[in-house]
Amino acid sequence: MPRFERRVLLGSLLVATPPLLASLALAWIPMGEPLRWTCVTVAVAAALLLARWQYHRVVFPLYTLSGLLEALRQGDYSLRGVHGGVLGDAIYDINALAERLQRERLEFEESSYLLGKTLAALDSAVFVFDEGQRLRLLNPAAQRLLDAERHRLFGLSAAELGLAPLLDGPAARLLRHVFPGRSGRFEIRHAALRSGGRGGRLLVINDVGRVLREEERAAWQRLLRVLGHEVNNSLAPIQSMAGTLATLVARDPLPEDWREDFRGGLELIGHRAEALGRFLSSYSKLARLPPPQPRGVELSALLAKLAKLEQRMAVTVEAGEPLTVAADPDQLEQALINLVRNAVEASLPDGGVRLRWCRDGECAVIEVEDDGPGPPPSDNLFVPFFTTKPGGSGIGLALARQIAEAHEGGVALVARDDARGALARLWLPNRVAPGEQG
Question: What region holds the Histidine kinase domain (predicted)?
């Protein structure tokens, strides 16, 4: 039997004891009438006192319990009851419940604050509609997109906001649209929500045009920095030598060795002009790469041909399974020539270069392994015009990656795990296009 029930039973028995004793006394003990009424009075008074005592023991803890439960119902989780008494166990459990609810509300408030800050920091416009498609939540980006004050937007329907067509279309799509605050190309995503047993809709709008413009601007800035650096590297010595030659011509009489000075100066100007021309030609090749024209290319024949093209050292072609891929043979050969040339230049004079190919799931992988010092520690290896080699153009790796990505593949350059050197990997989708094999 629970502790509270035992105490209630004991208190009830104590309340019933004085009348019971008085009844026994009246029934069995011979006494006079005054004494009999005195006993009855004492018994009744004792019963009333015990009843009051029992009332306080039962009712007051229930009042405490009721007050704690009311505080919980009102959301006040700071109120606590004193342990002990007939309902000590129940009060202890309610205190523990209040602590847990208080902790959970604090976590919820912190999560809500973090969610609000996250939504406010998003560049994406976020709208939340209820089951009647009336706006219930939006972030600052959404407010800017609609170009209106927040209090004027809440409660309006999606149709009144001009967003109903976006909720009726596919769950994810790209389109051009004109909003009150901005126009351009947007990514539209929407999904169903449920809150409090009721449905709703979530609408997220991303301005992809702005992102693309920012990336394009950043790309132009990087390109202009590289172009400016390379052009200045050539124009500065040309300008300096031209000034020197102008000074030499102005001398009267001319020095005896003026022809040699002129010849050396003109050779320097020609050399730098030639280097600048090669650089601009490399840029033109990278910028004007045509779309690939894929046809079947047998890798063993292609790699054997590449190995014969290299004259500075013998390139080993490791045997592999017959494998034909769909690729533009000229572009793929150009990409691999750049990878092989880098490997050979890194391995000269005493190293070696090995070519191999394999099938890796849905991809065909071509590997170029060398015994050189390994790739330089830089994240810019595939950035156009970036080079760590004296006289390098910085085009080879960038062109190889551009060709591979045009074929829905990719290129990676990593350090070898088994020895000193680098490993270049070019992968393409493992599918064959109809047509002549190259």
Answer: 226-432
